[in-house]
Amino acid sequence: MELDHACKIQLNEDIFGRRRSVFLFQEDIYAFSKIKIIGQNCLAIYISYLQSDLKNKNWTYMYGFIDPNDFSFECGKSDKRATMLSARLKDANEDQIFLVPYNAECFDEYLRLIIGIKHWMLVAIDPYNNKAYYMDSMSKKVPLNLKECVKLPRQPGGTECGYYVMRFMKDVIQNHILITSEKDSYNKDDIDVMRNEWALHLGSLIM
């Protein structure tokens, strides 16, 4: 791929509740290969992998996903995001957990100077029990509109937040529990598991 050309990948309706096109650029793949900061397109590809794994295990009734392109700091006014979120959650199964990769302001003032305003976090929403669990690999400060903060591994640098969100989603689904961990941070093998899954799934989508 040339730098100014993108690979168009069509995602199925069952992932985000509607058909969705992902445009993956060469710089996206380069960033992913070097564990640099990644955007919503890379996360959408990994969510597509997780959805296919859920289908293989017949677990789709247990988990759902919110499009990271729809529910982020830059996607529009808060009332627009709330409308999109409500529409996605209205058909939720009882006790189904929705995972929401959320690109928002970093709440830690010092880290904002290092990484800037953009930072990936994860919110796990349990609509039937009216709970939302906040998973941030950097910040200790919890937004006032979220219910509970979960103890998590913390990323060691300023570029790993997207990969930690991927790992959080994988661990929630794999363990059937919201994450509580005694680990200080994930090691390289923990991260490389998802990077390999991402690469193999991307290959299957473009072949």
Main attributes?
207 residues; alpha/beta; 5-stranded mixed sheet; two-stranded antiparallel sheet; 40% helix; globular
Number of strands: 7
Main β-sheet description: 5 strands, mixed
Strand order of the largest sheet: 3-4-5-6-7
Mean pLDDT: 82
Q: Terminal Cα separation, in Å?
A: 15 Å
Shape: globular
Report the sheet-strand fraction.
Answer: 15-25%
Number of helices: 7
CA gyration radius, whole angstroms = 16 Å
Encode the helix/strand succession as letters: EHEHHEHEHEEEHH
* Class from secondary-structure proportions: alpha/beta
Write up what this structure looks like.
The protein is an alpha/beta fold. The chain is 40% helix and 19% strand. It is built from seven helices and seven strands; from the N terminus they run E-H-E-H-H-E-H-E-H-E-E-E-H-H. It has helices spanning 13-16, 26-33, 40-57, 78-89, 109-115, 161-175, 188-206; strands at residues 6-11, 20-25, 63-65, 97-105, 118-126, 131-135, 148-149. The strands form two sheets. A five-stranded mixed sheet has the order 3-4-5-6-7, with helices on one face. The chain has a two-stranded antiparallel ribbon with strand order 1-2. Strand 3 (63-65), helix 4 and strand 4 (97-105) form a beta-alpha-beta unit. Helix 6 crosses helix 7. The longest helix is centred in the last third of the chain and has 19 residues, at 188-206. The radius of gyration is 16 Å and the shape is globular. The model is unreliable at 106-115 (pLDDT under 50).
